[in-house]
Amino acid sequence: SASLVFALTALICALLFLNSWITKQQDSYHARLREELPSAIQAMNACFCIGYSLPQIFEQVAQDLEGPLKQVFQKSAAVVGTVEEALEVLKSQTHEPELFFLATALEIQHRTGSSLSQVLEVARQSVDDQLELKRLLQTQTAQAKLSAQIVTIMPFLIIGVFSLISEGFLEPFFTSAVGIILLAIAIAMQAGGILLVRKMLKVEVA
Question: Quick check: pTM over 0.70?
Answer without folding.
Answer: no
